[in-house]
Design goal:
This protein is α+β, with helices and mostly antiparallel strands and 135 residues long. The chain is 34% helix and 18% strand. The chain has helices at 2-6, 13-22, 31-37, 43-55, 98-108; strands at 29-30, 59-62, 70-73, 78-83, 89-93, 119-121. The strands form two sheets. A three-stranded antiparallel sheet has the order 1-3-2. A hairpin with a 5-residue loop joins strand 4 and strand 5 (89-93). The longest helix is centred in the middle third of the chain and has 13 residues, at 43-55. The radius of gyration is 18 Å and the shape is globular. The termini are far apart. The model has no long low-confidence stretch (mean pLDDT 87). The structure holds zinc ion (ZN) (2 copies). Residues 61, 63, 69, 116 line the site of one zinc ion.
Protein backbone atom coordinates (compact mmCIF):
# COMPACT_ATOMS: atom_id res chain seq x y z
CA UNK A 1 0.00 0.00 0.00
CA UNK A 2 2.84 2.34 0.81
CA UNK A 3 4.26 1.83 -2.67
CA UNK A 4 0.94 2.71 -4.23
CA UNK A 5 0.67 5.85 -2.12
CA UNK A 6 4.16 6.92 -3.07
CA UNK A 7 3.17 6.49 -6.70
CA UNK A 8 0.21 8.76 -6.09
CA UNK A 9 -2.50 6.11 -6.35
CA UNK A 10 -5.56 6.48 -4.23
CA UNK A 11 -6.19 3.45 -2.04
CA UNK A 12 -9.84 2.70 -2.58
CA UNK A 13 -11.61 -0.21 -0.87
CA UNK A 14 -11.82 -1.92 -4.26
CA UNK A 15 -8.06 -1.63 -4.80
CA UNK A 16 -7.37 -2.93 -1.34
CA UNK A 17 -9.58 -5.95 -1.98
CA UNK A 18 -7.93 -6.67 -5.33
CA UNK A 19 -4.48 -6.26 -3.85
CA UNK A 20 -5.26 -8.78 -1.10
CA UNK A 21 -6.32 -11.24 -3.75
CA UNK A 22 -3.36 -10.92 -6.06
CA UNK A 23 -0.87 -10.98 -3.20
CA UNK A 24 -2.41 -14.05 -1.57
CA UNK A 25 -0.24 -17.10 -1.05
CA UNK A 26 0.36 -18.79 -4.38
CA UNK A 27 -2.24 -16.57 -5.92
CA UNK A 28 -2.40 -16.82 -9.67
CA UNK A 29 -5.28 -14.73 -10.85
CA UNK A 30 -6.34 -13.52 -14.20
CA UNK A 31 -8.28 -10.28 -14.52
CA UNK A 32 -11.28 -12.46 -15.39
CA UNK A 33 -10.93 -14.40 -12.11
CA UNK A 34 -10.97 -11.17 -10.16
CA UNK A 35 -13.97 -9.84 -12.05
CA UNK A 36 -15.87 -13.08 -11.41
CA UNK A 37 -14.91 -13.06 -7.77
CA UNK A 38 -15.92 -9.46 -7.17
CA UNK A 39 -19.02 -8.68 -9.18
CA UNK A 40 -19.34 -5.48 -7.12
CA UNK A 41 -16.15 -4.08 -8.63
CA UNK A 42 -16.35 -2.53 -12.04
CA UNK A 43 -14.43 -4.36 -14.78
CA UNK A 44 -12.53 -1.27 -15.84
CA UNK A 45 -11.48 -0.73 -12.22
CA UNK A 46 -10.00 -4.22 -12.09
CA UNK A 47 -7.95 -3.69 -15.25
CA UNK A 48 -6.81 -0.26 -14.14
CA UNK A 49 -5.84 -1.50 -10.67
CA UNK A 50 -3.85 -4.41 -12.11
CA UNK A 51 -1.88 -2.18 -14.41
CA UNK A 52 -1.17 0.22 -11.54
CA UNK A 53 -0.01 -2.60 -9.27
CA UNK A 54 2.24 -3.74 -12.05
CA UNK A 55 3.55 -0.25 -12.78
CA UNK A 56 4.69 0.18 -9.17
CA UNK A 57 6.23 -3.28 -9.13
CA UNK A 58 3.94 -5.07 -6.67
CA UNK A 59 2.70 -7.68 -9.11
CA UNK A 60 3.75 -8.87 -12.49
CA UNK A 61 1.94 -10.86 -15.08
CA UNK A 62 2.93 -14.07 -16.69
CA UNK A 63 1.48 -16.01 -19.59
CA UNK A 64 0.99 -19.56 -18.42
CA UNK A 65 -0.59 -20.78 -21.61
CA UNK A 66 -2.91 -19.71 -24.37
CA UNK A 67 -5.30 -18.05 -21.98
CA UNK A 68 -5.24 -14.58 -20.46
CA UNK A 69 -2.27 -13.32 -18.44
CA UNK A 70 -2.04 -14.35 -14.81
CA UNK A 71 -1.08 -11.82 -12.15
CA UNK A 72 1.16 -12.82 -9.30
CA UNK A 73 3.23 -11.30 -6.56
CA UNK A 74 6.32 -9.76 -8.13
CA UNK A 75 9.25 -12.08 -7.48
CA UNK A 76 11.45 -12.12 -10.52
CA UNK A 77 13.65 -14.78 -8.97
CA UNK A 78 11.51 -17.67 -10.13
CA UNK A 79 10.33 -18.99 -13.44
CA UNK A 80 6.95 -20.67 -13.73
CA UNK A 81 7.01 -24.03 -15.46
CA UNK A 82 3.56 -25.16 -16.45
CA UNK A 83 2.39 -28.64 -17.39
CA UNK A 84 0.83 -28.22 -20.81
CA UNK A 85 -1.57 -31.07 -20.16
CA UNK A 86 -2.99 -30.52 -16.68
CA UNK A 87 -1.91 -26.94 -16.06
CA UNK A 88 0.04 -27.62 -12.87
CA UNK A 89 2.53 -24.82 -12.21
CA UNK A 90 5.90 -25.25 -10.51
CA UNK A 91 8.09 -22.26 -9.73
CA UNK A 92 11.73 -22.92 -10.50
CA UNK A 93 14.46 -20.63 -9.14
CA UNK A 94 15.74 -18.49 -12.02
CA UNK A 95 19.29 -19.39 -10.99
CA UNK A 96 18.69 -22.90 -12.28
CA UNK A 97 18.51 -21.47 -15.78
CA UNK A 98 21.82 -19.67 -15.38
CA UNK A 99 23.81 -22.07 -17.61
CA UNK A 100 21.31 -21.66 -20.44
CA UNK A 101 21.27 -17.93 -19.91
CA UNK A 102 25.04 -17.69 -20.16
CA UNK A 103 25.18 -19.82 -23.26
CA UNK A 104 22.50 -17.85 -25.05
CA UNK A 105 24.25 -14.61 -24.22
CA UNK A 106 27.70 -15.84 -25.23
CA UNK A 107 26.80 -17.78 -28.36
CA UNK A 108 23.71 -16.06 -29.66
CA UNK A 109 23.91 -12.56 -28.17
CA UNK A 110 20.43 -13.07 -26.75
CA UNK A 111 19.73 -12.25 -23.12
CA UNK A 112 17.11 -14.54 -21.71
CA UNK A 113 14.16 -12.78 -20.10
CA UNK A 114 12.57 -15.22 -17.75
CA UNK A 115 9.29 -14.81 -15.99
CA UNK A 116 7.09 -13.22 -18.65
CA UNK A 117 6.17 -16.48 -20.31
CA UNK A 118 6.08 -19.81 -18.55
CA UNK A 119 8.21 -22.67 -19.74
CA UNK A 120 6.04 -25.53 -20.86
CA UNK A 121 6.56 -29.04 -19.60
CA UNK A 122 4.81 -32.30 -18.87
CA UNK A 123 4.50 -33.31 -15.25
CA UNK A 124 5.15 -36.86 -14.15
CA UNK A 125 1.43 -37.63 -14.12
CA UNK A 126 0.96 -36.47 -17.68
CA UNK A 127 3.97 -38.08 -19.35
CA UNK A 128 3.41 -41.28 -21.24
CA UNK A 129 4.96 -44.27 -19.47
CA UNK A 130 8.43 -45.28 -20.58
CA UNK A 131 9.51 -41.94 -22.02
CA UNK A 132 12.92 -42.40 -20.52
CA UNK A 133 12.74 -39.53 -18.04
CA UNK A 134 13.27 -40.54 -14.45
CA UNK A 135 10.40 -39.49 -12.23
ZN1 LIG B 1 2.58 -10.05 -21.26
ZN1 LIG C 1 0.39 -32.58 -15.86
Amino acid sequence: LARLRVAGCRITPARRTLLDDVLGDDAQMTAEDLIRRHPEIDEATVYRALSQFEAVGIVHHVHLGHGPATYRRAAATSVPVVCEVCGRVVDVPAAELAPLRERLAAEHAMVLEVGHFALTARCSGCRPPGDGVSR
